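ASSEMBLY PREDICTION REQUEST
Request ID: AP-0331
Submitted by: J.K., bench scientist
Number of chains: two
Total residues: 525
Priority: normal
Notes: Please return the full assembly, not individual chains.
Input sequences:
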Amino acid sequence: MTVTGDSEKVSDLVYLDYAATTPVDPRVAATMASMLTIDGDFANASAGHIAGRRSLARVTHALEQLGVLLNVAPDSLVFTSGATESNNLAITGAARYREHRGRHLITMPTEHKAVTDVFRALEKQGFDVTWLGPDERGVADIEALAQAIRDDTQLVSIMHVNNETGVIQDIATIGELCRQHDVLFHVDAAQSVGKLAIDLDSLHIDLLSMTAHKLYGPQGIGALYIADRPGCHVEPLLYGGGQQRGLRPGTMPISLIAGFGHAAEIAAHSMAADLAHLRALHTRLWSGIRDLPGIVVNGEIEHGYPGILNVSIADIEGESLLLALEPLCVATGSACNSQDQEPSYVLRALGRSDLLAQSAIRFSFGRLTNNEDIDFAIERYRQAVTRLRNLAPERAA
Amino acid sequence: MSIDPYSAEVRRLFANPRHAGDLGDVAEAYVDEQGIRIRLFASAKAGKIESLRFRAWGCPHVIAACEAFCETYEGRAIGDLTAFSAHELLRSLSIPVKKTGRILILEDAVRSLGQNIRDGSCQILLRD
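STATUS: Completed
Returned structure:
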């Protein structure tokens, strides 16, 4: 099959879609590449021979690196294929494990599809789900959550950093509330692990989903943290060779796991510098476009995750805006699958009109973004908005 | 298999819509339907279309189709407007089937423009 498409190399583009995926850190790539061939640690970690034991040591080391990043015991982590699988395992697995106690679950409509679709599937299986509406910024109402918790509530799932808006939820307070009521608390932390400090030893979080490819690691590997405390466990979704205590069987992808571990180690050391860098970029970008008439921030400027700036703009058609922004690589306000031109359900939940939601652009940046990239984005965005507005006809009276 | 949702022709027309703008004191047609807004302007002389201009609010395919129409129909007979069919544009621009409805809105606008030139009117065709 011949696949044709855009001829530009990624290096010819300005990549501002770090919330979708980050490039792999060259140090991580080197670690992984060294493992793939006959001279590397490629063997099956379940094998009893020396090569297998070397691979197992790689797994153990990666678990330790993740444990340091999150301040947890390495054996509380289970590797998965990514955050989607981690979310599925956490939510479905916990719901089934605690089903005998009750079938009430709580989440928000602004969660990632990898969460909302799991809850919808559970609803079809007879579970009762409360969908907790956000405020106009996208933040969970703690009082409303407290009122929603019932005697039969078994699980609350609320993400840490919203993938579209960058809004940060108060997971410390929510965790305390859940613990008071003996309700499991799951956090989708795909956008925050390795970027914001998460001390699982001090937070009342029972289940936490993460993925490597948002923190300069490889795609195809993630993990689920499962707190070691009574009543906190998950039923497996897969059955097989018994690897990872039977919670996630299957041959472990050693090079991916090692890459994840290395990315976590780098993140632990560079997090403070990364955050300062992102704050400066965020301020620069917002300062450069905030005066455009009709511009609206989706999320929070002051208290959101500084790696994401999501803006809508009045009287602009989103698909044309996205094309006019090329070679800028950004995400639109359409659903998480960008092939889908439906307005974002997250932005609709924040009260945005269809028109405003579909004009949304999510700029997300990272460790490798520089001021020149941001200045290019500002110039391109302003040009595109002006051009499309000049092209549009006046509405008939 | 192309992974680009836009044909090279759509990209060319969208990037450089030479006919975007207004013509003063000439026949016009305006359509506002399904979230798409198109305004067409035409000057005509001796049964021929002299100049065409457009303004549009819509997706890249709509904007490219408006420009393609203007490029193609300047110099042609006025009667060609009332007989205009979007079929050729759909094919030549490789417009996805799911967007056919949007291009048919342009067809409505072009036919209305042709009628307005004949009538010497500036009728607005407005649906929502």
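REVIEWER COMMENTS: DSSP finds eleven helices and 13 strands in chain A.
SIGN-OFF: pending second reviewer
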